[in-house]
Amino acid sequence: MQSAVCPGSFDPLHNGHVEVIARASNLFDEVIVAVSANMHKSPLFSLDERIAMAQETFSYFRGITVKPLGGGLLTDFCRAQGATAVVKGLRGPQDLEYERPMATMNRHLSGLETIYLQADGRYTHLSSTLIKEVHSLGGDVSEMVPRAVHRRLTDRSADRPADRSADR
Ligand code: PNS
């Protein structure tokens, strides 16, 4: 059985991620979505929320499971899961520049291979950062994220209404 890991912070998961992970699941018997604690960024959603959104979204897919990446190395996580490859989506050259050193480091550490899937043209403009910004400024992101994510984004804005003081 061939397993692959799709790692990321997924803060939040968007439809570009979903499309790449779904395509990865056509290539491997099992795909593990590994949600990172995101040590270099301050995430909008907690790890538990990011895992819950991914679990809800991928519950409709066969062969895809969601797990926390944990606090260790991705190479150790992949070994523990019996995964032979990491799968990442590429929107453009800037993604390759970002991914290349990590892929090389992972191969150096343990021989772990990284496979890149070209993002579908419908999703190359999507990023978690832009989606959070557009949503926080009142833009409609409902076609860019899974329903589980949109619901939580909407719940959050209901909890914390936007500051309209500058409108006056
Ligand atoms: O979505 P992101 O934030 O770009 O994902 C980055 C991630 C989680 C894939 C990367 O930070 C990672 O692999 N973290 C695990 C710790 C590790 O192995 N670090 C060395 C990477 S070469």
Shape: globular
Q: How many E-type strands?
A: 5
> Mean of the pLDDT scores?
93
In terms of DSSP E residues, the strand content is: 15-25%
Distance between the termini: 61 Å
Task: Report the biggest beta sheet as strand number plus sense, adding barrel if it closes.
Answer: 5 strands, parallel
Bound molecules: 4'-phosphopantetheine
- Rg result: 17 Å
- Percentage of helical residues? 40-55%
Q: What count of helical segments does DSSP give?
A: 6
Structural class: alpha/beta
With strands numbered from the N-terminus, the spatial order across the biggest sheet is 3-2-1-4-5
Q: Provide the low-confidence segments as ranges.
A: 163-168
Oligomer: single chain
- Helices and strands, in order, run as EHEHEHEHEHH
Briefly, what is this?
The chain is α/β, with parallel strands linked by helices and 168 residues long.
Question: Which features does this protein show?
Answer:
168 residues; alpha/beta; five-stranded parallel beta sheet; 6 helices; 5 strands; 43% helix; globular; disordered C terminus; binds 4'-phosphopantetheine
List the helices and strands and how they pair.
Blueprint: E1 3-8, H1 15-27, E2 30-35, H2 47-58, E3 64-68, H3 74-81, E4 85-90, H4 93-110, E5 113-118, H5 128-136, H6 147-159
Parallel strand pairs: 1-2, 1-4, 2-3, 4-5
Helix pairs in contact: 2-6
4'-phosphopantetheine binds next to β1 and α4.
